[in-house]
Every structure is written in structure tokens, then in C-alpha cells.
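User: Please fill in residues for this 662-position structure.
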């Protein structure tokens, strides 16, 4: 009896602990918070009660058909915008919101026409604005400030989830000096609705039915011929609805990856504005409701455990309980019940079952064998030991996290492999990969995969590394030194191994085990991986062996880099700076000192005279260009000086490099 009483009180303690841990983990661990968001997003996207289409807000869209009317796609024809504003004013609209960033000049007469139209319109008008450095540079900001009157500015920024980039909140604006209130708050202000300067969750407006959008949408080029009464006394928001531009991930993407899930910015603003106008409250998951539901599910787990029916019974009963919770939550929401948390209670139930299993002495875990089998091929033995000792630090499912990548590839290896017999090729490749892996393991990196001679290495996975970015750069430098020594050694034997090109990049990626039931691999997926691979590839263009992105350099204050150039990738408009990681000794040598000075002067010069009839004379008289050419002549083996000198002779006296190939 005494034992049963002690066990009961211990079980109550398990309930409190499981409740506490399930709540804390879900509210503080990003990937669990994301799962909870996904569960909430599904209900918002699919199960909200239908509502009639908004009668206050109209969206005028810039479509593919609209931009196809003009000789250039971007910026949109300024005369067309001006006439559109005048047409809407003539139709008696209440106010106009222009979600188009007017940050660069087009045709002078059309720019002036739009500028005058903006200032002379009688209808309240507000226009997208931002001074965020990552969106507009100083030149663009100066133009934007001159073009858009201060009283018409509305911040066009979005408040996104840092984990998955989803727009979840209304950006309030006024967060930095010079930033106006946000686009939806500005619209609400104009029509007399007061809003607070705080970030609030967006209450997405449901549609009437599958075919009817939440807001009436009309293509901009059709506005002149549409009836005036469709627009009279309406709030009209003008913005792009293009396949590849100004699209933002919303919670609705959980079931629809089209226009709803990847929503044009102007429609996001419409949802936010309607929330202010209709005083619609967002569906929130509170601490109080989470704690209550978690404790209830923990009690169920305790009851199942106290039955002592065995692990199979506990698992099946737990699955049934969780299924009932999810079904009730989804069906109840559609019938008007509040938003019920799901991930935290599920975790609390699982924790309760597990701890109860331990409490009654029937827990048998296989984590040590799993970790050793799953990761011994990818990481150093010391890392495997850490995972075995601390398996809770490991997530074997896909998790989005900050990760740093190294990509390496031997130049001309495909051609070389065709010339060597199979045994020699195998010996050379195995020796090279063995030495490279030792260096990666030395720096606690994970070898993701080999693709022929290419290597993909990952840092900060599967275990967290606070210093993963500088760690990867140090690894890349040592790897470069090893690869050069290996090349020289093989060349002396008559085997023409080329140089190894290495790229380093960091960013958010999905990391985990992927594959089929019969075979799974630990790997990383996402755009960050593609960028890292492209960073390695651009070495060929610059003649360098090592390249790193701005994201890497920003986190490596104690390491040394030489700027390669301000690169405008194919399909992009804004440049990104690439860097060449170097040793401290090289950085403090005379070449690096002179190169940094020449590069600075070249960047300030920023002159392109390819088409000039007086090109040679201009180049000969250009101090910045000639200093870089002289540096290249003085150090003929240095690829960076040689690269810029070659461009200067063509008339490109600038550090801006526009890539024509990916």
C-alpha cells in the first residue's frame, strides 16, 4: 500500500513535469514552435468559417498582361501609374494605396508626370516606402525620398517568422529612424481607425468559397473600362500580382502553395487592413490554454502508465489519445471552438508515457545503437561519442537551422579521369578524399556526401557548434593548403591533378535524415546549399581557389579576407560581395596591403566605358585602373589582381561584376 501511494505521488510529479516540459519546449524551441504554427495554419487555411467578400477594400493588380503592354518590365511605366491614379480618382474612390517602390528613375518625362500627379491628386494617397539597407541602397533611398512626399509614405516591410520566412504579423513601422508607419496602419489612419505601434498577429480573412477571393481584384489595365460604382467609396490598393515578384509565404501555404500560400504583398496588406477595419481578432494559442491541455494529456498518460499493460499497449493507447485530441481540435475549430494547442499536449502525453514507463521499470532504449549506426559514416568518432552521450542534442528528422557548408571540387577532374586507368584513378581519388576527410573531421565537420571528387561538408549539424562559421573557414584554409600540396605531389609523379576550388557559405537549411524505408541518408536541403555550391563554382570565373560569402565574413571578425568583387548574379539586380579567405601571414604581406588599397580606389571609381570611342585614352589616364594593372604586373601570379586588371583593360574600371552565367 505504501509503495502504491509513493508510486501515485511520483506519477503526479510526472504529470507536472511533463506539462512543464511540453509547454516550455514548444514555446522556446524553434522547430517545435514551427510545428505548432503548422498545426494552427492548417486550421486557419482550411477550416475558418466562410465570410462574404470584403465590401470596403478593392485590389487593383499589376499582372503579367499589364507589364506585357510596355517595352520594359521593371520599373513599371510611370505614365501608366499616373493615369491609373487619375482614373481611380475620377471613379470616386475613398483612398488609394500604391504598393510600388518608386526607388529608381525611368523616362524623365514620365517620372515627372507621375511625380506631379502624386502631389496634385485630391484623393488621399499613400505609397510604399522603406529605408531598410538590405532593400534599398543610398542612391535608391535618396531617389525615393525625393519622389515620395513624407506625408504619403507607408512602410512596405513585412514581419516574418525567422524560422520559415512566413509572414505572420503586421509590421508596425516606426521601428528605426526615418521609417514611417506601415502600409496597413497608414490606410487605417487615413480612414479614421486608430492602431497601436505594436507587432500583432495577422487575422487572415477567410474567403466566401473556393472561387471567390477575400477581396475583389481587378487588373490595372482594365480599370478605365470598368463601372465607376465598383470603385466608388472603396479603399483601393494597387500592387503587383506577378508569378515571380513580390510573393510572400503565408500560413495558407500549408495547403496552397499558389497565390494564397505565396501571396502578393499587396494582398497581405489587404488582409492586415481589413483586420483593423473589422476589428477582427487573430486566433492565438495562449500559455494558459497550453498548460491546461498539457496537464490534461499528461493525466491521460499517467493513467495509461498506471495500468501497467506493457509498452505496446501504452504506445497504442497514446496514439489513440493524440488522434482524438487532434480530431476534436480540428472539427471543433470548424464549429467555433477556440484554437487548441496540439504539439505541446502531444509532447506532454509522450513525455508522461515515457516517464511512467521508466518509473515502473519497463523502459528499454536503443538510442546508443541508433546513433552509432546512423552517424559513424559522416562524422569523426569523437562527434559520434558526443551524440551517444547526449542524444537529446540530435534531431534525426528534418529541422531548419543555421548551417555552414563547404563545397570543394577538383578542376578538370572529369577529363583527368578519362586519361587514367581505373587503378591509378582509384588510388589518387581515395588518397585525396582520405586526407580531405581527416581535415574536415579535425575541425568537427560532417562529411555530407562525395560526388566523384567533389566534397560537401556541413558544420553545426548534427550537433550544435557555437563557432561553426569561423570553424568552417579555418577548415577551408587548411583544406586549401592540403589540396595544393597534394596537387604538387601528384604533378611531380606525372599525374596532372588540377587545383581544388572551395566555396564557403552559411544560412538556414533543413538538416536531417531523408530517404526511403530501405535507405536513408543524413543530409541538408535548401537554397543555402545551392548558394554554397555556386560559391565554389564562381572560383573558376575569378581564378581563385577559395571563395566565401558576405554572410561568412560578417561572423568572422578574427579571420582575414580579401574582397573579390561586388557580384551581380544572373537574374538579380543588387550586388553581393564575395571574398577570398586568406591566412594572417598573407593578409599582412605587401600584396594584400596594396590590393586592398587598389580595390578601394577601384570601387570608388565605378566606371564602365566599354562602348566609349576614347576608351584607351581614358584607361591610360585613370589612376585607380592603372594602379591595379601595375599591381597585376608586379604580382603576375596573384589571380585577384590579374582578374581586375583584365577587366580594366576592357573598360570596366569598377569592382561591380555582372555575371552572365549561373
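Assistant: Residues filled in for all 662 positions:
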Amino acid at each position: 500500500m505504501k509503495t502504491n501511494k509513493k508510486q501515485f505521488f511520483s506519477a503526479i510529479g510526472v504529470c507536472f513535469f511533463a506539462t512543464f516540459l511540453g509547454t516550455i519546449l514548444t514555446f522556446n524551441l524553434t522547430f517545435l514552435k514551427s510545428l505548432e504554427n503548422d498545426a494552427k495554419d492548417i486550421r486557419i487555411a482550411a477550416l475558418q468559417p466562410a465570410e462574404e467578400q470584403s465590401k470596403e477594400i478593392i485590389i487593383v493588380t499589376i499582372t503579367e498582361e499589364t507589364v506585357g503592354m510596355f517595352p520594359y518590365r521593371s520599373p513599371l511605366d510611370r505614365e501608366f501609374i499616373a493615369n491609373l491614379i487619375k482614373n481611380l480618382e475620377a471613379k470616386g474612390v475613398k483612398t488609394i494605396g500604391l504598393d510600388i517602390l518608386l526607388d529608381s528613375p525611368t523616362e524623365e518625362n514620365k517620372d515627372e508626370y507621375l511625380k506631379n500627379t502624386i502631389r496634385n491628386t485630391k484623393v488621399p494617397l499613400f505609397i510604399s516606402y522603406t529605408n531598410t539597407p538590405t532593400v534599398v541602397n543610398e542612391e535608391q533611398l535618396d531617389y525615393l525620398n525625393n519622389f515620395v512626399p513624407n506625408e504619403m509614405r507607408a512602410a512596405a516591410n513585412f514581419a516574418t517568422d525567422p524560422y520559415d520566412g512566413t509572414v505572420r504579423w503586421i509590421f508596425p513601422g516606426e521601428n528605426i529612424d526615418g521609417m514611417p508607419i506601415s502600409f496597413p496602419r497608414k490606410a487605417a489612419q487615413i480612414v479614421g481607425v486608430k492602431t497601436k505601434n505594436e507587432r500583432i498577429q495577422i487575422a487572415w480573412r477567410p474567403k466566401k468559397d473556393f472561387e471567390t477571393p477575400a477581396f475583389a481584384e481587378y487588373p490595372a489595365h482594365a480599370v478605365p473600362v470598368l463601372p465607376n460604382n465598383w470603385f466608388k467609396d472603396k479603399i483601393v490598393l494597387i500592387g503587383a500580382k506577378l508569378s515571380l515578384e513580390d510573393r510572400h509565404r503565408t500560413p495558407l501555404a500549408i495547403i496552397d502553395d499558389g497565390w494564397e500560400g505565396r501571396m502578393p504583398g499587396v494582398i497581405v496588406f489587404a488582409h492586415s487592413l481589413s483586420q483593423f477595419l473589422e476589428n477582427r481578432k487573430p486566433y492565438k494559442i495562449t500559455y494558459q490554454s497550453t498548460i491546461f491541455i498539457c496537464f490534461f494529456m499528461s493525466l491521460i498518460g499517467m493513467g495509461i502508465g498506471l495500468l501497467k499493460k506493457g509498452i505496446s499497449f501504452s504506445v497504442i493507447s497514446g496514439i489513440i489519445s493524440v488522434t482524438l485530441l487532434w480530431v476534436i481540435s480540428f472539427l471543433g475549430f470548424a464549429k467555433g471552438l477556440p484554437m487548441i494547442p496540439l504539439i505541446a499536449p502531444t509532447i506532454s502525453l509522450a513525455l508522461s508515457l515515457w516517464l511512467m514507463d521508466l518509473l515502473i521499470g519497463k523502459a528499454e532504449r536503443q538510442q546508443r545503437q541508433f546513433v552509432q549506426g546512423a552517424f559513424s559514416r559522416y562524422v569523426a568518432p569523437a562527434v559520434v561519442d558526443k551524440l551517444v552521450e547526449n542524444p537529446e542534442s540530435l534531431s534525426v528528422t528534418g529541422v531548419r537551422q543555421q548551417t555552414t557548408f563547404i563545397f570543394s571540387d577538383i578542376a578538370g577532374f572529369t577529363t583527368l579521369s578519362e586519361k587514367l586507368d581505373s587503378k591509378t584513378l582509384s588510388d589518387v581519388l581515395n588518397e585525396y578524399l582520405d586526407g580531405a576527410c581527416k581535415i574536415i573531421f579535425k575541425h568537427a565537420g560532417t562529411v555530407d556526401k562525395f560526388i566523384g571528387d567533389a566534397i560537401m561538408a556541413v558544420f553545426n549539424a548534427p550537433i550544435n557548434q557555437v563557432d561553426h562559421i569561423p570553424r568552417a573557414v579555418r577548415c577551408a584554409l587548411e583544406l586549401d593548403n592540403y589540396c595544393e600540396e597534394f596537387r604538387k605531389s601528384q604533378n611531380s609523379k606525372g599525374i596532372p591533378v588540377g587545383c581544388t576550388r572551395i566555396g564557403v557559405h552559411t544560412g538556414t537549411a533543413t538538416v536531417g535524415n531523408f530517404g526511403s524505408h530501405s535507405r536513408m541518408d543524413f543530409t541538408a536541403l535548401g537554397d543555402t546549399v545551392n548558394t554554397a555550391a555556386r560559391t565554389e563554382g564562381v572560383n573558376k570565373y575569378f581564378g581563385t581557389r577559395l571563395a566565401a560569402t558576405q554572410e561568412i565574413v560578417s561572423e568572422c571578425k578574427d579571420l582575414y579576407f580579401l574582397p573579390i568583387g561586388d557580384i551581380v548574379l544572373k537574374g538579380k539586380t543588387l550586388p553581393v560581395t564575395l571574398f577570398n579567405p586568406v591566412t594572417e601571414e598573407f593578409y599582412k604581406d605587401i600584396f594584400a596591403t596594396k590590393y586592398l588599397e587598389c580595390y578601394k580606389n577601384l570601387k570608388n571609381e565605378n566606371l564602365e566605358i566599354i562602348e566609349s570611342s576614347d576608351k584607351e585614352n581614358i584607361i591610360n589616364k585613370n589612376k585607380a585602373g592603372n594602379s591595379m594593372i601595375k599591381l597585376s604586373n608586379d604580382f603576375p601570379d596573384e589571380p585577384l589582381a590579374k582578374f581586375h586588371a583584365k577587366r580594366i583593360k576592357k573598360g570596366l574600371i569598377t569592382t561591380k561584376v555582372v555575371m552572365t552565367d549561373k
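For context: Confidence is low (pLDDT under 50) at residues 361-367.
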